[in-house]
Design goal:
The chain is mainly α. It has one domain. Helix content is 47%, strand content 8%. It has six helices and four strands; from the N terminus they run E-H-E-H-H-E-E-H-H-H. A hairpin with a 5-residue loop joins strand 3 and strand 4. Helix 4 packs antiparallel against helix 5. The longest helix is centred in the C-terminal third of the chain and has 15 residues.
């Protein structure tokens, strides 16, 4: 999952996900990621969160959150399917866009980029990001 490491709201969202979802996901601020390897431009990365699946499938925005929940399995998967189904998906994307537009005005935790790589949410110990 690529997210905005300079955004406190984004960092807090990742912290919540890391604390509640299975630990099989890799979380990385887009600012430290090799965007070209994912086929993403910096403009795309700054516009929303991106879930890059092992298959190469990329979801963004509220759909990325829904796919993440589906891939988490169990009750999270059920919630993810609801989030991805219209009309809930339309509302979820509208709310996501509103939060994205206001994210730097909303309270949040310390942005991930202000932390050492090993102290970032979801970091694998001994990794650089």
């Amino acid at each position: 999952m690529l997210y905005d490491g300079a955004c406190g709201v984004c960092t807090r969202g990742v912290e919540l996900a890391v604390g509640h979802l299975p630990d099989r996901f890799h979380w990385e601020p887009f600012q430290t990621a090799d965007l070209a390897a994912y086929g993403l431009s910096e403009a795309e990365a700054t516009s929303s969160v991106h879930l890059v699946e092992p298959s190469g499938r990329i979801s963004h925005g509220a759909a990325a959150a829904g796919r993440l929940l589906v891939l988490s399995g169990g009750a999270f998967a059920l919630l993810g399917h609801v989030l991805l189904a219209p009309p809930v998906s339309w509302v979820a994307e509208a709310v996501y866009r509103l939060v994205t537009a206001l994210r730097y005005r909303l309270p949040g935790s310390t942005p991930a980029l202000a932390r050492l790589p090993e102290d970032r949410p979801g970091a694998v110990r001994g990794s650089s990001g």
